[in-house]
Design a protein that fits this description.
The chain is built from 13 helices and 8 strands. With about 375 residues, it is of the alpha/beta class. α9 packs parallel to α10 and α12 packs parallel to α13. The N and C termini lie far apart (about 70 Å).
């Protein structure tokens, strides 16, 4: 190859810099920028959201089953509790199926959420539950089983096939790019529990090298999203192991914490453990969002966790809003012993019955008191 002329070299550099998404990717937010962004937010309280009539993220978003009326009704109940955010899962197959239609439905969802003063955190990828997602009509819930229809994104087939990575990149940059400057979007959660092996449910059919594949792909996903230059922060929530110091981090958690603009985490344990986790994460000097909590039988309840989150100014997003086709009011152990003949003594997740009645009125009252809703 002959040497390039200086002018040609400059042109090549510009092409490389702008090739990812039309412009160079921005760097990770500084601590100052992240904390400045967080100071402009109210105390963030909300739920992981999927309408009661959807078993998974595909059924929520596909054109035939997307239900704006149900979404509007349920987000109205959330607003009545003072909730101002929702964590909402997307899926790569929806972009592959109909990118324009998917963007239109996301915009419609944002319009409804904005009506209720709710700004969502969108989740792009997810390593939990069924590793073999399929478009089209989804199977009915398995009786008595928690989250019996939830789908991973990307599924095992795409994750092990590098030839599909350009498609995944197009999905990430297409969605993030479309809403990169939309003030109705709060943040982007790039990958939910990336190294979750689903041992209690689908562990036997998971890819044997799933952890290694995810570990290699996760940094790329951060780079893809940054190439869209979103005005909103990026994150991926740590969920297991010890995060109290860098030397104790797993390889996956290290990527999550080193790449995230704002820190996010999951915790379904007692309030003492929740607060210990928060105090450990405070050493990273960035905003902290708890994007999953609240499992009543495990000691994670609104009355115990929300006051701690408010004291530390930590965002609190519980799992589940309305009991429905996901059946996440049933406990995790329902995969081993389905609750068919009898119901568990207490709901695992969720805040409302399908008719909008709170599962426990005292819980609803506590949430309203802490969020300042009369």
């Amino acid at each position: 190859m002959r040497p390039l002329k200086p002018s040609s070299f400059v042109i090549l550099i510009l092409i490389l810099a702008f090739s990812n998404y039309g412009f160079a990717a921005a760097p990770r937010w500084s601590e100052e920028k992240a904390n400045g962004w967080y100071q402009q937010q109210p105390w963030l309280v909300g739920s992981n959201f999927i309408p009661a009539n959807a078993i998974n993220e595909l059924e929520m978003w596909q054109a035939d089953t997307f239900d704006p009326q149900e979404i509007d009704k349920e987000l109205g109940w959330a607003q009545g509790l003072g909730m101002n955010t929702m964590r909402v899962f997307l899926h790569d197959l929806l972009w592959q199926q109909d990118a324009a239609g998917f963007k239109h439905r996301i915009d419609a969802f944002l319009t409804i959420a904005d009506k209720h003063r709710i700004r969502p955190v969108f989740v792009l990828f997810d390593s939990c539950w069924d590793p073999f997602p399929k478009l089209g009509p989804q199977h009915p819930p398995i009786p008595g089983v928690h989250n019996s229809g939830w789908m991973q994104s990307p599924g095992a087939t795409a994750l092990k096939d590098e030839a599909q990575y350009p498609r995944l990149k197009e999905y990430v940059q297409g969605v993030v790019g479309a809403f990169a400057n939309d003030p109705r979007v709060l943040a982007w959660d790039l990958w939910n529990e990336p190294n979750n092996g689903n041992g209690g449910a689908y562990g036997a059919v998971e890819l044997k090298n799933k952890a290694e594949l995810v570990l290699a792909l996760l940094p790329q996903v951060f780079n893809w999203a940054r190439a869209a230059n979103p005005s909103q922060p990026l994150t991926s929530g740590v969920w297991e192991d010890d995060w109290s110091s860098p030397e104790k981090l797993s390889a996956t958690a290290r990527i999550q914490l080193e790449q995230s603009d704002v820190i996010s985490f999951h915790n379904y344990s007692w309030p003492e453990d929740f607060e210990k986790r928060v105090e450990g994460l405070e050493s990273y000097h960035r905003p902290i969002l708890c994007t999953e909590y609240m499992a009543r039988p495990m000691g994670s309840t609104f009355d115990l966790i929300l006051p701690i989150a408010k004291k530390h100014h930590v965002a609190a997003i519980n799992w589940g809003l309305v009991a429905g086709r996901t059946q996440t009011y049933l406990p995790w152990d329902s995969w081993q012993k389905p609750y068919v003949l009898e119901k568990p003594p207490v709901w695992f997740h969720e805040v409302f019955y399908p008719d909008g009645k709170p599962y426990r009125e005292r819980e609803a009252q506590i949430i309203r008191e802490l969020t300042g809703v009369k």
